[in-house]
């Protein structure tokens, strides 16, 4: 039996390119966050949300919400730090992360990351058609100190963090529908493209 895993959906960014809260924009009639929740939820033992600002806007999802410990929006690494801190507080040794703006998360992501995370590794992260996808990862909470150190030293890129910690890479390919499993929707145009992909072809 595998160790319990806390899933944390990362929605702590500013959504400036989308112009409104990305996690709440509708794709195929449902908020993006709901798509990610529906895919990540069954893969983990509990799910929480990393988000900043008024938590009330996510109340209908019934998720525990954890804000960044760093108040100045330093980027996704702060979300990862908050996720691992929540995992530690709740007694989880493992945290699986997924961004709230990537609605095609593979349904076997956590299983495959778990297989790759051997005892010597602190993280297993995904790679896809566009290379490293470090926000789709399985992290030991013991990686928290390396993350805090990187943040303290203003090294904010998540992919750079990986050179500080032993990690494994897991490659995911597009499915038969050729959708990049990690396509993230940053702009209204990205959203429109994803909407077209999901729309059933009219006869
Ligand atoms: N916790 C936290 N997460 C962040 C922060 N900035 C970005 N993220 C998350 O990192 C992932 C990728 O974010 P981006 O798309 O690069 O940034 P964004 O702020 O969401 O959107 P833009 O403002 O359009 O760049 C998403 O899951 C964001 O929620 C931050 O300062 N804190």
Automatic annotation (TrEMBL):
> One Pfam match, by short name?
NTP_transf_3
Q: Does the keyword Transferase apply?
A: yes
The cofactors named for this UniProt entry are: Mg(2+)
EC annotation from Swiss-Prot or TrEMBL: 2.7.7.77
Assembly, in brief, is: Monomer.
Q: Which PANTHER family match?
A: MOLYBDENUM COFACTOR GUANYLYLTRANSFERASE
**What family, per the record?**
Belongs to the MobA family.
Q: What is this protein called?
A: Molybdenum cofactor guanylyltransferase
């Amino acid at each position: 039996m595998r160790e319990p895993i806390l899933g944390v959906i990362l929605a702590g960014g500013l959504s400036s390119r989308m112009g409104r809260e990305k996690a709440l924009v509708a794709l195929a009639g449902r908020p993006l966050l709901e798509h990610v929740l529906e895919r990540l939820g069954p893969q983990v033992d509990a799910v929480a949300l990393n988000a900043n600002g008024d938590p009330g806007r996510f109340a209908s999802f019934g998720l525990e919400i954890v804000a960044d410990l760093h108040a100045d929006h330093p980027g996704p690494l702060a979300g990862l730090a908050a996720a691992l801190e929540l995992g530690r507080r709740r007694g989880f040794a493992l945290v699986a992360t997924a961004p709230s703006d990537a609605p095609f998360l593979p349904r076997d992501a956590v299983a495959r990351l778990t297989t790759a995370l051997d005892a010597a590794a602190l993280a297993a992260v995904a790679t896809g058609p566009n290379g490293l996808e470090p926000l789709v990862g399985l992290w030991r909470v013991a990686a928290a100190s390396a993350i805090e150190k990187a943040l303290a030293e203003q090294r904010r890129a998540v992919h750079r963090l990986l050179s500080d910690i032993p990690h494994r890479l897991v490659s995911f390919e597009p499915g038969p529908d050729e959708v990049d499993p990690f396509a993230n929707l940053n702009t209204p145009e990205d959203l429109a493209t994803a909407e077209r992909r999901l729309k059933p072809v009219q006869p």
